[in-house]
Amino acid sequence: MAKIVVDVMLKPEILDPQGNAVASALPRLGFTFATSVRQGKRFEIEVAGEPTPTQLAEVEKAAEVLLSNPVIENYVVRVEK
Amino acid sequence: MRVGVVTFPGTLDDRDAARAVRAGGSEAVELWHGDADLKNVDAVILPGGFSYGDYLRCGAISRFAPVMTLIIEQANKGMPLLGICNGFQVLCESHLLPGALTRNSDLHFLCKDQVISIENTNTPWTSSFSKGQEILIPLKNGEGSFQCDDATLASLEGEDRIIARYVGENPNGSRNLIAGITNVRGNVVGLMPHPEHAIDALTGPSAEGLGFFTSILNAMVK
């Protein structure tokens, strides 16, 4: 069993009000390390056996048409051991 | 005229949209998301709500509903199509309209009466209005902030494709106060606020939303 992970993040130029809200909540709890926070989504996709190049290409395609909205988001596909 | 109103799982405003269609003088035809038949409608409305629970992204799953395949096909051939609120989100996810609707800039779900100005009266959904006319209709959304890149914004402005703008303070962070846009052809319109909730003074803040529904009848009769 292998896990293919797709991370989807808002593009840097798109306002992320949720990330901003988290960034402003952190110092209220005494956490002062953050200069900025961006919030995204992570998809974990399990496949039987090692992912084949074809499967990875299909996941790339799915990430583009469904898992992300290319107008506002970027995605990264990787295999997690 | 037969105007289809689509119900997805999680749609809320289909009843009000159908009532508004009837008040505007057309026949409202119920369309189910799983239908592979548009029942000979002349135009379609995608109403507001939380289709498929807004899972993934608002409108992202609705785009792939069986009825949407037919609607996208007909819209590309010129059929008038209006998406209100969640329907607007579905139109953007379907790439029938450019840009995307993102979380309101202040994160709050909005529910208020909002003045908008009608900027383009050449679409089949806005022809009953006069250019610059201000109307008061409800605005209720969590993800209503219209975003797009600078080139898209410039083409929307340059091609007169912004059909309505918010008047006064920007309620949700939309670029250039955009409340509604249309496609290049002018038959597909997306609108964030809700004209279907403002068709009579008893149940709405005004009856000024009715113009969207009388417009479609006029467009068809012409």
Element layout with pairings:
The complex is a heterodimer of chains A (81) and B (222).
Chain A: E1 2-10, H1 17-25, E2 40-47, H2 53-67, E3 73-80
Antiparallel strand pairs in A: 1-2, 1-3
Chain B: E1 2-7, H1 14-23, E2 27-32, E3 43-46, H2 66-76, E4 81-84, H3 86-93, E5 100-102, E6 110-118, E7 134-141, E8 145-147, H4 150-158, E9 162-166, E10 178-182, E11 188-191, H5 211-221
Parallel strand pairs in B: 1-2, 1-3, 3-4, 4-11
Antiparallel strand pairs in B: 5-8, 6-7, 6-9, 9-10, 10-11
Molecular structure report:
The complex is a heterodimer of chains A (81) and B (222). Chain A is of the alpha+beta class. Chain A has one domain (2-80): Phosphoribosylformylglycinamidine synthase subunit PurS (Mth169, Chain: A, 2-Layer Sandwich), CATH 3.30.1280. Helices cover 30% and strands 31% of the residues of chain A. Chain A contains two helices and three strands. Chain A has a three-stranded antiparallel sheet with strand order 2-1-3, with helices on one face. Chain A is elongated. Chain B is an alpha/beta fold and 222 residues long. Chain B has a single domain, classed as Rossmann fold (3-Layer(aba) Sandwich). Helices cover 22% and strands 26% of the residues of chain B. Chain B is built from five helices and eleven strands. The mean pLDDT of chain B is 96. Classes of the chains: A alpha+beta (81), B alpha/beta (222). The A-B interface holds A 10, 13-15, 17-18, 21, 66-67, 69, 71-72 and B 56-57, 60, 64, 92-93, 98-100, 102-107, 145, 147-149, 173.
Helix/strand/pairing category of chain B = alpha/beta
CATH superfamily descriptor of chain B:
Class I glutamine amidotransferase (GATase) domain
Please give the domain count of chain B: 1
Indicate the percent of residues in helices of chain B.
10-25%
The order of strands across the largest sheet of chain B is 2-1-3-4-11-10-9-6-7
